[in-house]
Specification:
31% helix; homodimer; 4-stranded mixed sheet; Dihydrodipicolinate Reductase, domain 2
Chain lengths: 252, 252
């Protein structure tokens, strides 16, 4: 949050930071302190919420505020779905991290909740949850330029594609990294690979609708898996291959 | 046969051409005529067999000869299996074309016949059928050099591979070509793609044991299919992708 979200919020004119929250008092104080570095964020009336200070000072209290439209979340993947839903049920829009959820089932449930007319969302008659996944690759100039060239027909028609991403995570970084803690499937491959999937989806003229994939672990220090190869079929019949490995050195 | 097999036989010291056969008199006479171009092939005692001249002058008569060890076949794919088996049953070794057969089932049956102790092969106690598929890509210097570098560990360990072959068959050639006549599955893709599969198998240090594939037709003049993408898994766990298209132009 201090390294990525605060600077991004500070430079976005349509956002004004009115409150910060964390479970612990210590981390929310650090966050509030970090916010003071940014001139465009109003320090003086920045409210601080944490569960340690009791229910009237915790998340539920923050979500009751009428002057909060949108909640920006910087959470580990497994913690996201419950809090996203909680924010929606309180009538707030959400900006959350990628990937959406630790499992396909939870991701599908969230997506359907965000787009369906689920009457269990209390404020649905006046509010449809708005949700932005903070996945930056589609906004990367090179990928976006590729997508624009494809859409303009500048490279001809896409008939086939082959994506190859080889980034070997070095041993110390791999061993220490929270990504390898498999409290969600896929480790580095889910959390890092999702970027390249997002870029590919952004560039392809027709959305992928089915795939067949193999996964395996090559580096012993990168459990549970570090390498994926997939055969992708798009709605228009185009097929392609998608290789992402965090356990194989980039070919020279 | 005149363009590829005769010159190859003529330059192979261990082979001596003693007889030629075709169903029709006209084509076997043309073949015998073509053989006379090669000094190392003994013309004078070259026997000519064809079914039009009656059973005693046809294939069965040829296969009864004790001085014939090996039969070199240049046949369309669907015609191969029956004649390969016939030659084996007559105790002859076979050099035949790729691919082995028009279907996986027929190919498997032939392979099992060539390697098993099938007692229906009459001469098995003294003869085990020998069989060479005339697939040239493993003997191509560049592919063979790649295979030797891999086996010597010169490029490190093979962790993943991506094969991409794009060769668009131009319209007139595609429309006229016998390959597109789908009396066997796959058309160009089976008959042409098998070369690249053979090269890959020659180079890989561990044999492919399973795959998942998509096929489709991109050019209307190349039925039944012209493009294949596969996800390949090898015995040692290595995975890779294999793309072959005769309907997509080579990227520039």
């Amino acid at each position: 949050a201090p390294e990525q979200h605060l600077p991004a919020i500070a430079t976005t004119r349509s956002l004004r930071l009115v409150a910060v929250y964390s479970r612990s008092s210590r981390s929310v104080q650090a966050l509030a302190q970090a916010a003071k570095k940014y001139a465009s964020i109003a320090h003086d009336d920045l409210s601080v919420y944490c569960d340690e200070d009791g229910p009237e000072a915790g998340l539920d209290a923050l979500l009751k505020r009428q002057d909060v439209d949108t909640v920006v979340m910087a959470l580990p993947i497994p913690a996201q779905p419950a809090l996203i839903e909680k924010a929606w049920r309180a009538g707030k829009s959400v900006i959350s991290e990628k990937p959406v959820a630790p499992s396909v089932a939870e991701a599908r449930r969230l997506i359907s909740l965000s787009s369906s007319s689920d009457s269990s969302l209390p404020s649905l008659s006046t509010f449809r949850p708005r949700w932005l996944i903070a996945e930056q690759f589609p906004y990367t100039p090179s990928f976006d330029r590729a997508a624009r060239l494809v859409r303009a027909g500048r490279i001809g028609r896409v008939r086939s594609f082959n994506v190859e991403v080889y980034i070997q995570v070095p041993k110390p970084e791999g061993e220490d990294n929270w990504r390898k803690v498999p409290d969600y499937q896929g480790g580095f491959l889910l959390d890092g690979g999702v970027h390249f999937a997002a870029a590919l989806r952004h560039i392809l003229p027709s959305p992928p609708i089915s795939l067949s994939a193999s996964v395996r672990q090559i580096q012993p220090y990168l459990p549970p898996i570090d390498t994926l190869q997939a055969l992708v079929t798009c709605e228009d019949g185009t097929t392609g291959t998608f290789t992402v490995s965090f356990g194989i050195e980039r070919p020279s």
